[in-house]
Every structure is written in C-alpha cells, then in structure tokens.
Amino acid sequence: MPPRHLVCPLCKTLYEFTVSAKTCVRCGAPLFTIYENLEHILKSTLIKAKERAIQGLGVWSFSELLPVRFIGRSLGEGWTPVVKLEKLSNALGVDIVVKNESRNPSGTFIDRGTAIDVQAAYESEFNSIISASLGDYAISLSMYAKRYGIRVTHYIPEFVEPWKLYMLTLLGDAVIEVEDYLSAIKKASKLAAKHSHYLSIPCSPTVIDGYRTIVFEVVETLQKIDWIAVPVGDGVLATAIFKGLNEIRETLNVDTPRILTVKLEENYGKKQKSIETVLVELSGGITKNIIANILKDSVKYVSIEKNAVFAFAAQLAELEGVVVDPVGVASLAGVKVATELGVMGKGERVLGVISGSPSKDSYVLYKVIAHSGRSTPIYRIYNNRDIVYVSNVQKEILKILYEARQCHAYGIWKKLVSLGYSITLQTVHHHLKSLVEKGYVRVLSSNGRRVLYTISELGEEYLDRELGI
C-alpha cells in the first residue's frame, strides 16, 4: 500500500504522497516516504521475504515496504549474493564481505529503483516516461519500461559513452543528446510538465525506496558488521541506505552499522554538477550539497583517485576472481583508504556494495591491467591479432590529436579539410565517437556543445605500432 505522506529529511516539511512529488519545494532535498504502522509491516514483511524470494519475486519480496499498490514485473533484480573476500580481508586487515550488485539484470543496483519507479508510473496510468540521466539509469529504466509497453524518452549528455547510446538504441527508445546533465534535467522536467509525461529521475522517492531493499536483504547480517561501504556518485544510493538503516534501527530497536561513503575523484569528461545541486537550482533553493547535509551526522567520507581504483580493481580480480567495472569497486578501494587514515580500525567488519558489469571498454581494461603491472601480455595480443579496425580517416584523427594533444571536433575537421579530405563535421563527430568507444580517444572536457578530445595511451600505442610515431 502506498504511503500517505512524504517528508523532507532536511527541513521536515510534510507532503501528501503523489508519484509526481520528487523533491522538497522549499529546499530541494529528496523526499522520504512515511509508512503507517511501519514496525508491524517491517517485521511481518521481513519474515515472509525469503520465501517470496524463492518464488522469484525479486525486490517485490518487500512489496508492503514499497510505494506502490501492486507487485510489479520483475526481471530478476535483487537478492544479489553476499560473498566473503578472505584474501582481500587478510591483505587489508579488516573482515570484508561484498554485496555484489553487478548480478542485477543491467549489472547495477539501479534496477532496484527503476523496477519500482516504472510500476508507479504504470499504476498512475502514464503511457510515456521522460528521463534525464548519465546513461546507466536510462538503460535500466528502458529495460523495465519494456515490460509494461511504456515509451521512454531519454535526455542524455552528449559526452556519454557510445556503448550506452547503442544499448538504448537497441532497446528502441528515443534518445536526445544535450550539452550537459543540467540541460538534460531542465529539458526533461519541462517536457514532462508540459505534456503530462511521467518524470523519472534518480532521486525520486520511489527510486530511493527501491534502492533501500539492499538493507532489507542483509538485515540478518547488520548486527554482525561495523560498516557499510557505499560508492557515491549522485549520492542517492547512500541516502537510500541511510533511510533503510534508520527504519531498521527505529522499528526493530537494533544497532546498525555506520556508513562509509566513497567518492571517486577526477571523473572522465566534464565534471558534472551532482543531481542534488541541480535540483536545488531548479527549485529555487540555495545551492548546496543537500545529500551531504542529510547524511552529515551518520556517515564518514573518504575520496579516492581514479588511478587508485584501477589498481584496486586489478588487485580484486587477482586475489578473489571478482571482476566488475572499476568504478563499481570504489567502495572497497575506499575501505583501504579508510584503514590507512585510521577512520576504520583493524579487524572491523565491513559490507561493501559493489556494482557494474565487467567492462568491455578496451581503454578501461588497459588501464586496469597497466596498474596491475602485467601489461606485457597486451603487446603480444596486439602483435598477434588485429582486434580493432581503424579507418584511414580515424588514423589521421589520431595523428592530429597526437600532435595537438587536445582539440575540439571543429578544429579536427578544419585540419582534415586542409589535408585534402572531403568530409563533413558530422562525420568527424561519428569517427570521434567510434574512437572513444575503441579506447583510442578520451573526452577531456565538455563545455556546452564543445567537447574537448585527447588521444589515450592506447591510441598512442596504436600509432607507435602501426605508423611508428
């Protein structure tokens, strides 16, 4: 049964529950659902949940604790395995188990939230959804919308990895590329309001409640651990974990673990404003880190550089045979940092949430291998196999980037024209996207519609091997 009310966790403003309510109109914070008779519902639902899981209900095992009227259509999300990592525990001096969210249908925890959000849209008789995201959320949303025959239009920043756009194209939904994430949020919100479409964004109350089912699945483990380590992108997962732990603590009167949030620094491409900041700007509130304020007294924060994450991903694969996207192991890499800083004591018990299917991006895999110290076999692979086709125009683009070190598409186009190539700017954009996907070119930054490109280490090695540059 849907809750009757929502509450702002910052300013405590109460709202009547509706699926269109996303954030607090006063301060812009994500809203929390309030369930009546929560203690009774929580206890009875947790008792029935495992039996329901055996029946294949996924996150719908906790249907009474979700803000919808009926059980939705599962793709097998939820009830991901909890695995003890003995070798890594010995290496770091803490007792580590992981909740492996890469086992969800799209490879991320996001499926827990979109499964609920699409059901909410369906129950409210929407036949179309408008979304704004950085890619992974959009893919998951489209997967679940297909189960209901609901159309989705995605607003996506233009620097998003090509493979995500290909996946969305495969799913058959409309994709509109815009300058950046702020533009995506604004345009999606405007279109949804104007034409009465359902707006799906990661910080919706329905999505938060779906994410928090991670906590319910490990309720028997909570009193056996000291920390839950969570990666922080937009901060919504950490907020959902916080909400779930509070509900467990207040209704079952048990101690719950502390939260360690791990922020990955120096992201690829343009550094985007976090979603909470964007939503405050849209609602007219004061720009600030809302989610940090919600969590400030309940969590510890550490940050980690991307190179350290690559190195840790390699260590995790070698020690434990666990291979996920490097960004997805940021939580465990943060545990290492936390022990080094003394935030986490030796021998403490940690549950790390990891997420993201193993990367097939050649550049990402190369970086992981390079940080493992085992890059020599890569040269044998390249010498023995022509695994990537690069056209003559793309070779010229690589040479231009090698010489210029960084350049916009327009500058590359002008240089190609001066070299005698008959080519359009649009075609140059196509070649650049292809080279980014192959791992030979990286997006250095994005400023409005102008994307700045640079050649990657993999691209330099290709030129050295093929052209002797």
UniProtKB/TrEMBL annotation:
Its cofactor is pyridoxal 5'-phosphate. One of its GO terms (biological process) is negative regulation of DNA-templated transcription. It comes from the Archaea. Residues 74-356 form the Tryptophan synthase beta chain-like PALP domain. GO terms for molecular function: DNA binding; L-serine ammonia-lyase activity; threonine deaminase activity. Belongs to the BlaI transcriptional regulatory family. Keywords: DNA-binding, Lyase, Pyridoxal phosphate, Transcription, Transcription regulation. This is Pyridoxal-phosphate dependent enzyme.
